[in-house]
Amino acid sequence: MSASTPVRPTLPVDILARKGGAPLVCLTAYTTPVARLSDPHCDVVLVGDSLGMVLHGLPSTIGVTMEMMILHGKAVMRGITNAMPVIDMPFGSYEEGPEQAFRNASRLMMETGMPAVKLEGGVHMHDTIAFLTARGVPVMAHIGLTPQSVNTLGGYKVVGRADEGARVMADAEAVQAAGAFSVVLEKTPEGLSRRITQTLTIPTIGIGAGVGCDGQILVIDDMLGLFTDFRPKFVKRYANLGEAASDAIADYAAEVRARAFPGPEHSFPDE
Question: Tens of pLDDT along 185-208?
Answer without folding.
Answer: 999 999 999 999 999 999 999 999
